Amino acid sequence: MKERKNWGKITGLVLHVLIGGLMIFTGWQKILGLISPEALAKYGLGEQMQLIGAGAFLTALLLLMPRTSSLGLLLTSAFWGGAICIHMAHGEPYVFQALMLVLTWVGAYLRNPATLGSFSHPPRMTRELAAEPEFAVW
């Protein structure tokens, strides 16, 4: 059982390293100006290219560090969700961005199955907490 647990953590980490690496690579390209502003100008984002690059870079770092991976997961989801919305608004395919979003969550689950724990078991109220007047059910 422990071997399976390690396999899942390693697989999740590999997925996050690949996704984070992609975000770091593209983020640096935007920060350093290696991508022409016209590439993002068609989406109305030419002026914000360096800001988007810095956001992608910092988000990837947060995703890759174990202590901040939950915040990184939230921000990475927002990043890919924004990319999906931009592509949808311009009538372009968004399969790649959707795949990256799904793989981000799969990687998070494999790294730490408790990430999705709130979906499988609703939080329980303890007797002591339920006895407090503000939580009493009338």
List the helices and strands and how they pair.
Elements: H1 2-32, H2 37-41, H3 49-64, H4 69-89, H5 95-111, H6 117-120, H7 127-131
Structural overview:
With 138 residues, the chain is mainly α. The protein has one domain. Helices cover 72% and strands 0% of the residues. The protein contains seven helices and no strands. It has helices at 2-32, 37-41, 49-64, 69-89, 95-111, 117-120, 127-131. Helix 1 (2-32) runs antiparallel to helix 3 (49-64), helix 1 crosses helix 5 (95-111) and helix 3 runs antiparallel to helix 4. It is globular, with a radius of gyration of 19 Å. The mean pLDDT is 87.
H and E order: HHHHHHH
Q: Give the biggest beta sheet.
A: none
Q: What is the number of independent domains?
A: 1
Stretches with pLDDT under 50, minimum 5 residues: none
Helix content: over 70%
User: From the helix content, strand content and strand pairing, which structural class follows?
Assistant: mainly alpha
Radius of gyration: 19 Å
Number of helices: 7
**Number of DSSP strand runs:** 0
First CA to last CA: what distance?
A: 46 Å
Mean pLDDT equals 87
Overall shape: globular
Proportion of strand residues: under 5%
